[in-house]
Design goal:
GMP Synthetase, Chain A, domain 3; 507 residues; Luciferase, domain 3; Rossmann fold; 3 domains; four-stranded mixed sheet
Length: 507
């Protein structure tokens, strides 16, 4: 960071803003999990104590600390402590298999790993020394008691890393997306500008904290003095209870659980609390469910489109009026990005022609950790290439066309076919495996595998079991179909299997 006093005075990070908000809010409730609460005063004290303890343990700016846990108060405390001492919080995905988690840990090389009792069973298979593991409970509370706050906190460079979230990889391995303090501040700003977040708004954080939609937006709400309702996963009963009693900024509902929440809310007979917007990812939800969801919660449906790398709002979306069955899903560009649509040679396409989205803006992440070659490709020409194809309309909106890089969006999870294909092809009797997406009423899309094997060809049940020990549950193919000969697969003139043609086989 520059030593120029004016440059220092012109910066602030989200962690320090939340600290200032906490001092103002005092005994107001910051976190509530339905059993206990934590006031802003308590949250501030514990985050400060934790940051001091991390520094005492030798955590310097840029060091990585990891967390493997369900949604809980300590997760937020770790994020705030990391922001204060300059560490990078690595949010491990507990849905990953041990093999996948080991890969993530190898990428980012954590100095400390915080773990909950629920997920401690994963540790024996991970490349982590017991000396760096801190379990939530007695060990964690003892850490908080180790040190008092220093007189001077490290100064945080806006470009310094803040959070790492792990995304699926086109090569079949997860990538570690580094989000800077600058990017997180910009995403907080967009939550207000385009998302309508206001001071004091409430938020139900039920999606896993290793996802952007839960962790980031919980921090945004805390920065403005609201209350975050911490929910341990898709607890339908509690989400419905909160939806009928707690005013909220945005009730995030995703494919795979949305229909159950709507049904439970309708059966309860309760009237919804004031909710400003509801829903997400309208592209993966039936128009009828979009209308029913907005009608049930008496709130406009938010037609979002985002990514871990750019934040929730590379396209701010549009809002469908209460009860409206959408006839189109065109998106609106957000307020802080420059966009262009490019072809395979990175040349801008003509108006109305489909092209991959390339964008610039302050919410964009800082690249994938330890992935120089991938970053050079993804940031070609100084623009981040989103991997999604859109077409510009004359009215200034954008129509989604397809994915430039074939991706399966199942619920809120991104799944690349290469991840599943790599596992299937590791079976000694499989000689070809291709995974495609199939529309699904609950999850939006699900993976289906086409395989060709050598005698004795394994059964579908055998391959499902093979995948179960090597892939997270949501990545497992929902169906396996057998192809008699590798030459039967539809291919382009260059020999590449055409996934879109395979999709036609599902009809």
């Amino acid at each position: 960071m520059s030593n120029n006093p004016s440059a220092v005075a012109g910066t602030i990070d989200l962690g320090r803003l939340i600290s200032a908000t906490a001092h103002r809010r005092g005994e107001a409730i910051a976190l509530d999990d339905g059993v206990r609460t934590r006031s802003y005063r308590e949250l501030e004290a514990r985050a400060t104590q934790l940051a001091a303890a991390l520094i005492r343990r030798g955590i310097e700016p840029g060091a990585r600390i990891a967390v493997l846990a369900e949604n809980r108060f300590e997760y937020i405390e770790l994020a705030l402590a990391a922001a204060r001492c300059g560490a990078i919080l690595c949010a491990l995905n507990w849905r990953f298999t041990v093999e996948e988690l080991a890969h993530c840990i190898a990428i980012t090389q954590h100095t400390l790993l915080f773990v909950s009792v629920r997920h401690a069973a994963l540790l024996p298979g991970l490349p982590v020394s017991e000396a760096v593991i801190i379990a939530f409970g007695e060990a964690y509370e003892a850490l908080l008691a180790e040190a008092s706050a220093p007189n001077l906190w490290p100064r945080i460079d806006p470009e310094a890393g803040f959070i790492i979230l792990y995304t699926s990889g086109t090569t079949g391995h997860s990538k570690a997306a580094l989000i800077s303090h600058r990017a997180e501040w910009a995403r907080f700003t967009l939550s207000q500008i385009d998302g309508g977040l206001r001071a004091g708004d409430g938020f139900v954080a039920w999606a896993p904290f290793f996802h952007m939609v839960a962790l980031e937006h919980a921090l945004h709400v805390l920065a403005l003095g609201g209350t975050v309702q911490v929910v341990d996963g898709a607890d339908i009963e509690r989400i419905v209870w909160l939806g009928s009693r707690v005013p909220q900024w945005w009730l995030v509902l995703l494919p795979g659980m949305m229909d159950r929440v709507v049904d439970a809310m309708r059966r309860s007979g309760a009237k919804p609390a004031p909710i400003r917007i509801v829903g997400a990812l309208a592209d993966l939800v039936s128009p009828a469910l979009v209308a029913e969801t907005s009608r049930t919660f008496n709130a406009p449906y938010w037609n979002t489109f985002g990514s871990t790398e750019t934040g929730m709002l590379p396209f701010a979306g549009t809002r469908f009026p209460i009860g409206e069955i959408p006839r189109g899903l065109a998106k609106a560009p957000n307020s802080l990005h420059l966009f262009k649509l490019v072809d395979a040679d990175d040349r801008e396409v003509r108006p109305g022609e489909p092209g991959e989205v390339a964008l610039r803006g302050p919410t964009v992440f800082s690249g994938y950790w330890d992935a120089t070659a991938i970053n050079a490709q993804e940031f070609g020409g100084g623009w981040f290439h989103l991997g999604d194809v859109f077409a510009a309309r004359a009215d200034g909106l954008y129509d989604y066309v397809d994915r430039a890089k074939y991706l399966i969006k199942t619920g809120a999870e991104n799944v690349y076919p290469a991840e599943i294909e790599r596992v299937l092809l590791s079976h000694p009797q499989i000689i070809e495996a291709v995974v495609v997406r199939r529309a699904d009423a609950r999850w939006g899309e699900v993976p289906v595998a086409f395989v060709c094997g050598r005698d004795p060809v394994p059964t579908a049940e055998t391959l499902m079991a093979w995948c179960s020990t090597r892939l997270a549950g949501y990545k497992k193919p929902k169906e396996i179909r057998f192809v008699a000969d590798v030459e039967t697969f539809p291919r382009s003139t260059s020999g590449k299997i055409q996934r879109q043609a395979l999709e036609q086989w599902l009809r």
